């Protein structure tokens, strides 16, 4: 089982980390989603890789053997909000890393318009100003379930609850990535940056 003081890595590093296209895509995702470092990105990529491998394994099984595993995998991803209710197993193989990164608490706080920037969302989360169903969550990488998304807001004891707080005066809600078009994406000036 290992030494409890030393945790194991929860991510796998890329095979060829010094390729320019790999570096650029990683840096773009880190900046776009406000990640702290590449380890956070690699953790989500490893999670996506494991989901895909489970889907491939299930596709290779007979229908009777893989039915339970298939149902569990699809139910988990539907609860997370990564897949729609009408999804099939092939949709798991089509998932991109952005689909998982959009379900992070940090991304949803910014998209909901509770903060001015994705980096400010991370700061408010770690300082305990964000809560889900009056339960404070201090991990920016927490994957928010579809049911919990509606209860996302400021913590009860946070000074941010006051609508007259200076930070809340300049906030505008940002539409999610898949619904955004060039007409309804606010400019930086409209967001107050």
Compile the SSE list and pairings.
Layout: H1 20-33, H2 38-60, H3 63-80, H4 89-93, H5 97-101, H6 105-111, H7 118-126, E1 130-132, E2 135-136, E3 152-154, H8 188-191
Antiparallel strand pairs: 1-2, 1-3
Helix pairs in contact: 2-3, 6-7
Describe the overall structure:
It is built from eight helices and three strands, in the order H-H-H-H-H-H-H-E-E-E-H. It is mostly helical. The protein folds into two domains: 20-99, no CATH class; 102-191, Structural Genomics Hypothetical 15.5 Kd Protein In mrcA-pckA Intergenic Region, Chain A, CATH 3.10.290. Strands 2-1-3 form a three-stranded antiparallel β-sheet. It is globular and about 60 Å long. The model is unreliable at 179-185 (pLDDT under 50).
Order of strands across the main sheet: 2-1-3
* Backbone CA Rg: 19 Å
Number of distinct helices: 8
Mean pLDDT value = 88
CA-CA gap between termini: 49 Å
H and E string:
HHHHHHHEEEH
Shape: globular
Taking the sheet with the most strands, its summary is: 3 strands, antiparallel
CATH class identity of the largest domain = Alpha Beta
Task: Give descriptors for this structure.
193 residues; mainly alpha; Structural Genomics Hypothetical 15.5 Kd Protein In mrcA-pckA Intergenic Region, Chain A; 2 domains; 3-stranded antiparallel beta sheet; 8 helices; 44% helix; 4% strand; globular
